[in-house]
């Protein structure tokens, strides 16, 4: 304990004050300073001040008045000063009430000596400090020293109660940093931690006194803006945050920049409970993340409709798995050197009972968000392998089957075991199965994906990088990861015939991939001009509507036979 301990004594009797002052004067190893307050009303502000280390509070005040309301108010408003209650005699009910209301301990007047008083004061102060330390560890982020998700959730619930009472509104911002992962990967976690701390400080600079900021984990933050009267003011704060987060960072001798995406949900239209507000602000943030630069988006009624549609889609998708409404179509891939069909890409379809045949892009995000992607993914691999066996048997060709793999599937600990079991059960060599990953998904989840790629490659499975050129995959990753082929992003093909810059870019991509020993595949080839140009540029394989549209297995089997003139 400190050498000088200041105690606030709240009691209506001067005699009790003099008695306690005398007892405290006999404690020689600690200097106690006792301040007397003789009224119960008006004592709360003194309790909440920073002037006192402990409060001694008389519980009974005559005429049926007690200090229970004062204790309850102190506890509700998170008073940091320990309070020791005093009564004239030991009463079990009072003891329970006082401790439950927030008292740290209990003393009986007339039974207090110097030793008991000193020990009670010391234990109460030390216990309160321990409680505060543990509470801070539980409620504050250790890296940034700002509230964590637990404390923020409490503050959000409190804001909802106040808004309900006052018929007011407030805004919840969900903030995700753009480009932080690249900084973390390139400069190391220490630099990343420093950047997170600086971001937290910059967010605090954007806050008003009534606002609250928290770190939800990783590179995600939340901001609670209370007493917001219009959307324009909220937008100004969002713009200020984008400006501050986007300012240069000077860390370890380097200058670097990141951005942020902000989703905004305004109570009550953006959600009437904490769960809905957080979910809707998060959804708005992902909408903002679709923009090329830092941006913010409000959760609107249009997004409400999208949520309802997504929930309906999720329910329908679960039913689709049970009712066998999912199917696969296959698009052949042509070797431009030989003219042979050498591979098939499996494309997921859903025969929706009301909306008709749906392409995967219309529902795959729902499958990923809900976790259904694991069951769907295993079904796709099994179905594609069975159809591959049929095609090879009917067409007498050694074909490869390409399957799109979601990054979410790499989080499944059973992935390697399940895939090995499927290949073994269907007697499909691993070299005949190829998994496609988009470049962006690989780089965003590099550690997770690379951890699984190597054991899968030991099964003979191969990988191709889809949408090559759209992300930021480094040469080093292309060399070190077991990636057999790259697929040029279809957006680069659209302007090949009239854009010299695009032609140069695609030529450079093909040369780069060849220099790294990769097979180059062009997808979405639709015209003879595109084919001729890509073939002259050295592209190895192609697929697209110029050759064949995606087809069910029986039709694509017939197509392959015709292509190779197989009887």
UniProtKB/TrEMBL annotation:
<feature type="domain" description="EAL">
    <location>
        <begin position="310"/>
        <end position="564"/>
    </location>
</feature>
<dbReference type="InterPro" id="IPR029787">
    <property type="entry name" value="Nucleotide_cyclase"/>
</dbReference>
<dbReference type="InterPro" id="IPR052155">
    <property type="entry name" value="Biofilm_reg_signaling"/>
</dbReference>
<dbReference type="InterPro" id="IPR043128">
    <property type="entry name" value="Rev_trsase/Diguanyl_cyclase"/>
</dbReference>
<dbReference type="InterPro" id="IPR035919">
    <property type="entry name" value="EAL_sf"/>
</dbReference>
<feature type="modified residue" description="4-aspartylphosphate">
    <location>
        <position position="58"/>
    </location>
</feature>
<feature type="domain" description="GGDEF">
    <location>
        <begin position="168"/>
        <end position="301"/>
    </location>
</feature>
<dbReference type="InterPro" id="IPR000160">
    <property type="entry name" value="GGDEF_dom"/>
</dbReference>
<dbReference type="GO" id="GO:0000160">
    <property type="term" value="P:phosphorelay signal transduction system"/>
</dbReference>
<dbReference type="InterPro" id="IPR011006">
    <property type="entry name" value="CheY-like_superfamily"/>
</dbReference>
<keyword id="KW-0597">Phosphoprotein</keyword>
<dbReference type="InterPro" id="IPR001789">
    <property type="entry name" value="Sig_transdc_resp-reg_receiver"/>
</dbReference>
<dbReference type="GO" id="GO:0003824">
    <property type="term" value="F:catalytic activity"/>
</dbReference>
<feature type="domain" description="Response regulatory">
    <location>
        <begin position="6"/>
        <end position="124"/>
    </location>
</feature>
<dbReference type="Pfam" id="PF00563">
    <property type="entry name" value="EAL"/>
</dbReference>
<protein>
    <submittedName>
        <fullName>Diguanylate cyclase (GGDEF)-like protein</fullName>
    </submittedName>
</protein>
<dbReference type="InterPro" id="IPR001633">
    <property type="entry name" value="EAL_dom"/>
</dbReference>
<dbReference type="Pfam" id="PF00990">
    <property type="entry name" value="GGDEF"/>
</dbReference>
């Amino acid at each position: 304990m400190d050498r000088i301990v200041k105690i606030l004594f709240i009691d209506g009797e001067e005699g009790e004050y003099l008695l306690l002052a005398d007892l405290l004067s006999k404690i020689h190893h600690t200097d106690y300073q006792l301040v007397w307050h003789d009224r119960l009303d008006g004592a709360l502000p003194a309790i909440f001040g920073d002037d006192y280390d402990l409060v001694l509070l008389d519980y009974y005040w005559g005429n049926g008045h007690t200090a229970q309301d004062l204790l309850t108010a102190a506890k509700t408003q998170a008073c940091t000063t320990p309070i020791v209650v005093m009564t004239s005699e030991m009463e079990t009910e009072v003891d329970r009430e006082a401790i439950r209301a927030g008292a740290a301990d209990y003393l009986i007047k007339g039974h207090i000596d110097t030793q008991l008083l000193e020990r009670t004061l010391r234990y109460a102060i030390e216990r309160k400090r321990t409680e505060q330390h543990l509470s801070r560890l539980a409620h504050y982020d250790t890296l940034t020293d700002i509230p964590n998700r637990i404390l923020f959730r409490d503050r959000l619930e409190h804001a909802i109660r106040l808004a309900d009472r006052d018929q007011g509104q407030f805004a919840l911002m969900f903030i995700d940093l753009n480009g932080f992962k690249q900084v973390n990967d390139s400069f190391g976690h220490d630099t990343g931690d420093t950047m997170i701390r600086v971001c937290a400080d910059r967010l605090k600079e954007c806050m008003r006194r009534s606002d609250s900021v928290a770190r939800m984990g990783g590179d995600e933050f939340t901001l609670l803006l209370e007493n917001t009267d219009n959307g324009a003011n909220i937008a100004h704060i969002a713009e200020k945050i984008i400006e501050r987060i986007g300012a240069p960072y000077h860390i370890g001798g380097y200058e670097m920049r990141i951005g942020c995406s902000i989703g905004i949900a305004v109570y009550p239209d953006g959600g009437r409970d904490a769960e809905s507000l957080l979910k809707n602000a998060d959804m708005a943030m992902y909408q903002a993340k679709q923009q090329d630069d830092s941006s913010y988006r409000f959760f609107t009624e249009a997004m409400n409709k999208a949520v309802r549609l997504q929930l309906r889609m999720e329910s329908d998708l679960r039913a689709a798995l049970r009712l066998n409404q999912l199917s696969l179509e296959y698009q052949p891939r042509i070797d431009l050197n030989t003219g042979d069909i050498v591979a098939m890409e499996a494309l997921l379809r859903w025969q929706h009972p009301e909306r008709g045949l749906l392409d995967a892009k219309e529902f795959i995000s729902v499958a990923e968000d809900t976790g259904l992607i694991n069951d769907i993914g295993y079904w796709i691999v099994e179905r594609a392998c069975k159809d591959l066996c049929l095609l090879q048997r009917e067409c007498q060709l050694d074909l490869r089957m390409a399957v799109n793999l979601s990054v979410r599937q790499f989080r499944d600990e059973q992935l390697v075991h399940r895939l090995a079991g499927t290949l073994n059960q269907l007697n499909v060599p691993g070299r005949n199965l190829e998994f496609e990953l988009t470049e962006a998904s690989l780089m965003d989840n590099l550690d997770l994906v690379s951890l699984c790629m190597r054991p899968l490659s030991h099964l003979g499975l191969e990988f191709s990088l889809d949408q090559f050129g759209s992300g930021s995959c480094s040469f080093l990753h292309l060399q070190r990861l077991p990636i057999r082929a790259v697929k040029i992003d279809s957006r680069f093909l659209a302007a090949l015939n009239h854009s010299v810059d695009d032609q140069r870019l695609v030529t450079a991509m093909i040369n780069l991939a060849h220099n790294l020993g990769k097979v180059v595949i062009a997808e979405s080839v639709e015209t003879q001009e595109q084919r001729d140009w890509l073939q002259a540029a050295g592209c190895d394989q192609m697929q697209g509507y110029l050759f064949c549209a995606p087809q069910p297995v029986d039709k694509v089997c017939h197509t392959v036979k015709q292509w190779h003139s197989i009887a």
